[in-house]
Amino acid sequence: MSSGKSRFTALLAITAAAAIVTACSNDAADQADAGATGNTMPAAESAAGTAAQTTASVANSHPTEATPEYGRRLLRETPALIGPNNPDPEMQYSGNQLACSSCHLNDGKTPGTLSLLPTSGRYPRQSNRDGGIRDLRDRINGCMERSMNGRMLPRDSIEMIAMEAYIDDLGVQYAAMTEAERAPVEPPAFIEPDRAANVEAGRAVYEQHCFVCHGNDGGGLRVAESAGGAYVFPPLWGPDSYNNGAGMTRTLTAAKFIKARMPFGQPILTDDQAYDVSAYINSHERPTKANRELDFPDKTLKPIDCPYPPYADDFPQEQHILGPFNPIREYYQNLKK
Hints:
By secondary structure, this protein is mainly alpha-helical. It contains 13 helices and four strands. Among the domains are: about 5-180, Cytochrome Bc1 Complex, Chain D, domain 2 (Orthogonal Bundle), CATH 1.10.760; about 300-335, no CATH class.
């Protein structure tokens, strides 16, 4: 490894340790001193303890009140509370080891890309994917079925109401924030390159900037199974990642997030790098979402970078996946004239 790459690897390792500490600092009741073993980082001990303590306790303590604090925990401890690590099969709603906070960083409290602060004020609203007006609970279940590769929460469940209450609380905080406080601390917004994304160039970006946290195989970084097996950094493809019906499978959607937030704590990628590495990440196998052909009943409202057919145009599927997107965009703009 080159000296430059070694320095960057060291930086990301330090950033990773800081992220783990942050992830475990909000609630003293969530912390424990279990160790991590195997292919894990020593700094992951607190995260390991949190996962082990949560997994061990959920069987004996199911909340009976839908509080915002429980909603926050659901975002942070998704696999243990409503996922594969809950010992009660009836409570296993999410189908992978991701947490909601894997994408909604800092429990959704950080302004900017994928922040949950302004979310409650945006619903109900039209969902082109569903073909109708949808409320916040519908949106949460969309994530459950796609990003979490699981099944819907009952609309009147304690878990659903708690998550909604937490997001509503964030909305109250957002309303009280000044414009300066709402301003994201992010690089300039992603500008789409006028070309097709280059998967091989994306591989090089991944190997230089992403593998330290997400692994050479895209499998993420986990603490030991004996300590709960939770992810410190999420998998980007494979069986424990989001399925192929999730919004993050779209090249432009993922590129916007990557440009704004990645590498974690040090977002330094160019537009071209974010574009190419997005295509590389989404070129890999991941779980399949059933009945995707039913999405977007009005196919003319389907996003131009939606990677799965059918489409209301004659552009090849590969172009919908990799671009260039401007010809597709112009086609639909002309339909509206």
